[in-house]
Design goal:
Layout (H helix, E strand, L loop, with lengths): L4 E4 L5 E6 L5 E5 L4 E6 L2 E7 L4 E6 L5 E5 L4 E5 L5 E5 L1 E2 L2 E2 L3 E6 L5 E5 L9 E6 L5 E8 L2 E6 L5 E6 L4 E7 L5 E9 L8 E4 L5 E5 L3 E5 L5 E4 L7 E7 L5 E6 L2 E6 L15
Length: 272
């Protein structure tokens, strides 16, 4: 792997990263209540979300979805930068603290909700369909955060930060989660904030205080990336060959070349 390179600096608590259809990098600045655009190292405002934006992801219509933890809802930002609340309740119950999200091949948005604290054990994972209808698909988690689908979309991996572990859940034919299993028991009390798979099924996990760890398909930690520091949060693959890893580290975003390309995220058939 090559040495890391800073691509953006002086960000306010950067948390999550995503690329649009033109391969422009976007970052949620959780400390500033905004999503910013990064172009040739220059940072510009894309949209204000109001409080504490966390996970972000683009669909194939170039709409940006944001898990807005401070405002307790899921936000949609259209390409013309209009901001709207996509969902904020499930069966009349308000979301507590949306954290991270990803798309299923069906176009549904899966997102984690950390609940009201690690000790409460009331975290969960929701599914929002194309009409914004929300269903709770797993409950009883302790502060769930980062999440990622396997390449065949048959398994969902979730960081359960309150128990310092990553779990796997099988997705049934109805899109519900079942057969929860321990995938990785993190050492030294670490908690993963963001998860990604590469094309060989290796899991990248950003763990504040430890860095970005590589975990093999059997759940064994193999190595860590050489980064300027360990204050890591969001990670995303990018580059023409999808072989560059972008990492939120402290108040910067850094880029590092990797040997194995990343798994491309689902965007979902949302275009009309």
């Amino acid at each position: 792997m090559a040495e890391s390179e800073i691509v953006a600096r002086d960000l306010n608590s950067p948390y999550s990263l995503a690329f649009d259809a033109d391969d422009i990098l976007f970052v949620s600045e959780s400390g500033a209540g905004r999503v910013s655009r990064v172009t040739d190292g220059r940072i510009s405002l894309f949209a204000q979300t109001g409080s504490r934006p966390r996970g972000i992801a683009f669909d194939d219509s170039d709409d940006l979805f944001v898990a807005e933890g401070g405002r307790h809802h899921l936000v949609l930002i259209s390409p013309d930068e209009a901001v709207e609340v996509y969902a904020n309740t499930c069966k009349g119950r308000r979301f507590a603290s949306p954290e991270d999200l990803c798309f299923a091949p069906t176009g549904d948005v899966l997102f984690s909700d950390a609940g009201h604290g690690e000790q409460e054990g009331d975290g969960c994972v929701y599914r929002a369909d194309l009409d914004g209808e929300v269903t709770e698909i797993v409950s009883g988690l302790s502060s769930p955060g980062g999440m990622i689908l396997s390449e065949d979309a048959g398994m969902l991996y979730v960081s359960e930060r309150g128990h310092h572990r990553i779990i796997s859940l099988k997705i049934d034919d109805e899109g519900n989660l079942e057969n929860q299993q321990l995938f990785v028991d993190l050492k030294d009390g670490g908690s993963a904030e963001s998860l990604l798979f590469d094309a060989q099924g290796q899991l990248y996990a950003s763990i504040p205080g430890q860095g970005v760890l590589l975990i093999d398909p059997e759940g064994n930690t193999m190595s860590s990336l050489d980064l300027p520091g360990t204050a890591v949060t969001g990670i995303a693959f990018g580059g023409l060959e999808f072989d560059e890893l972008f990492v939120c580290e402290a108040d910067t975003v850094v880029r590092i070349s990797v040997d194995v390309p990343g798994q491309r995220p689902f965007a979902g058939p949302r275009s009309v």
